[in-house]
Amino acid sequence: MSKLLNGIDLVDFPRIEEMVQRHGERFLNRIFTAAEQAYSQANKNRMEKLAGRFAAKEAILKLLGTGWRGKIAWTDIEIVNNPMGQPEVAISGEVEKIAERLGIKHISVSITHTANFAIASAVALTERS
């Protein structure tokens, strides 16, 4: 029997901007992959893009039921856009192991922005209950 998993998160842009200003490259490299950083740099709304990816990662951790703990690295989750601009999820490391244990083969994510916030929703279907 399959089970639908869902996670959602809301991030305030100023929170991410403050972390970037306070911790710089250390924060960016700990949270975002090189591809995610390059994507945000290529856009005029850099903080909006970073906040969206941060929210997506949090939503995925909620979907998995783990939160950020143990051996999970933020960079175990990568959000990249396909040629049509839709965000796609790539997982590795501990997150991939957890997803395999849950029977998850694919995670879909949606990201949206307002003036000061990024919201992300993640869904997955397990192959077993």
Structural commentary:
With 129 residues, the chain is an alpha+beta fold. The chain has a single domain (4-126), classed as 4'-phosphopantetheinyl transferase domain (Ribosomal Protein L22, Chain A), CATH 3.90.470.20. Helices cover 43% and strands 30% of the residues. It is built from four helices and five strands. It has helices at 13-31, 34-41, 46-64, 93-102, and strands spanning 4-12, 77-81, 87-91, 104-113, 117-126. The strands form two sheets. Strands 1-5-4 form a three-stranded antiparallel sheet. It has a two-stranded antiparallel sheet with strand order 2-3. The radius of gyration is 14 Å and the shape is globular. The mean pLDDT is 94.
Show the helix and strand layout:
Layout: E1 4-12, H1 13-31, H2 34-41, H3 46-64, E2 77-81, E3 87-91, H4 93-102, E4 104-113, E5 117-126
Antiparallel strand pairs: 1-5, 2-3, 4-5
Helix pairs in contact: 1-3, 2-3
Task: Please provide a brief summary of the model.
This protein is of the alpha+beta class.
Query: From the helix content, strand content and strand pairing, which structural class follows?
Result: alpha+beta
CATH superfamily: 4'-phosphopantetheinyl transferase domain
- Series of H and E elements: EHHHEEHEE
Distance between the termini: 5 Å
Q: Give the biggest sheet.
A: 3 strands, antiparallel
* Mean pLDDT value: 94
Helicity level: 40-55%
Strand content: 25-35%
Count of folded domains: 1
Low-confidence stretches: none
Spatial arrangement of strands, main beta sheet: 1-5-4
Number of strands: 5
Rg, Å, rounded: 14 Å
Which second-level CATH architecture applies?
Alpha-Beta Complex
What's the helix count? 4
Name of the CATH first level: Alpha Beta
